[in-house]
Amino acid sequence: FYWERLGQKALAVDPIRLAGSVLRIASSDDASYLDHRVNLLSQALRVNPEATWQEIGRVLLDESRNAHRLSWNLQRLGVIGAVPLPTITDWLQRHGERGALVVAESARVTTGALTPIVRFLLMKSGERVARALSRTFLSGEWWGDESSHLQQKIEAARRWLADPEVTISQWATSLLSSL
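Below the sequence we write its predicted structure tokens.
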């Protein structure tokens, strides 16, 4: 609670410094696996997307388990969806497949419409990135019975089969074979 209130004040003064503080906490050994302070990154991305994403991307490219913890928080809280697509595409041009993999592992893939970032990754990146997005889609947590959860996933994949983009419909086919 207090972090969010302090974060709102810091956001108005220096969003990049706030992002750096949140990233240090979220990627530390003491961070929890669901740290809602990471939501402040979404707000910093709205204020200064390029500089905030540079900070986030720098931490994600770190090969430590703490980078994985941050990735999981970004995915769980849907932070990647707040990054403008041009910001991501510019960053990916500099960081290649490794960059695409960390974005794919940090993106949220739900049963709704595919986000512009997920669509871009599927259309422009290779098989390794598509497999990372598949893992993201197929894993996770839910409440209720497993059959309803899996049925929702199957219905989403069937909708994506009709996508005019061939790489997306092929990806949907591979999802269905896993479900």
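The chain is about 75% helix and 0% strand.
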